[in-house]
Amino acid sequence: MIVVVTRAETEKEVATREAATWLVIVVVVIELIEVVVEAVVVVTVVAVAVVTVKVAVEVVLLSVVVLIVVVEVVVVLKVVVDAVEVVKVVVVVEVVVVVVVVEVGRREVVVVVVVVVVVVVDVVEVVVVVVVVSSSSSSSSSSRSSSSNSSSSSSSSSSSSSSSSSNGSRSSSCSRSNSSRSSR
């Protein structure tokens, strides 16, 4: 640092000028340090804010993903439960028609009885129920056929007896007329 000293200046004035110059330099350096510190603080705050926003966005995205996964799991479980319920419960409907012939006096009254069987079972029991129902229906059909055969045979026997009785009456009338003619 160059200080020009004139003849009129004393040593005290020179020292005062040098002190003022150093004081200005120190003040400027302090101001620069404050500006730099403030800039660093601002940059740090901005960086922290950016990191915080980034973390918040990641947390929100993770929550959305977890929510989507939970919804998908619930939907899959509902589908599985519905499928299990559909497979577990089976409704078997069997209609059995029973024809009963009842004699009321001299007339025959045909009574038709319709029985609807509704069975709610598990899948394991379906085969057994179907076999039992089919066997019962086949036995009922065989009993129906046997009863119809017996009724037809009885009707044929009654018609043959009636025809034979009518033939016998005709032959007796013919013999009576022949005997009366011969006596004459």
Global morphology? rod-shaped
Please list the strands of the largest sheet in the order they lie side by side. Answer: 1-2
Order of helices and strands: HEEH
User: Averaged pLDDT, please?
Assistant: 67
**Total number of strands:** 2
Helix share, percent: over 70%
- The helix count comes to 2
Beta fraction? 15-25%
Kindly name the structural category.
alpha+beta
Distance between the termini: 196 Å
Number of domains: 2
Uncertain segments: 124-133, 135-184
Keywords: Membrane, Transmembrane, Transmembrane helix
Region (Disordered): 136-184
Transmembrane segments: 20-53, 60-80, 86-102, 109-133
What does this protein structure show overall?
By secondary structure, the protein is an alpha+beta fold. It folds into 2 domains: 1-73; 88-156, no CATH class. Helices cover 76% and strands 16% of the residues. It has helices spanning 11-88, 123-183; strands at residues 90-104, 107-121. The chain has a two-stranded antiparallel sheet. The relative contact order is 0.04.
Task: Write the SSE topology.
Blueprint: H1 11-88, E1 90-104, E2 107-121, H2 123-183
Antiparallel strand pairs: 1-2
Descriptors for this entry?
single chain; 184 residues; alpha+beta; two-stranded antiparallel sheet; disordered C terminus
Short characterization:
The chain contains two helices and two strands. With 184 residues, it is an alpha+beta fold. The radius of gyration is 61 Å and the shape is rod-shaped.
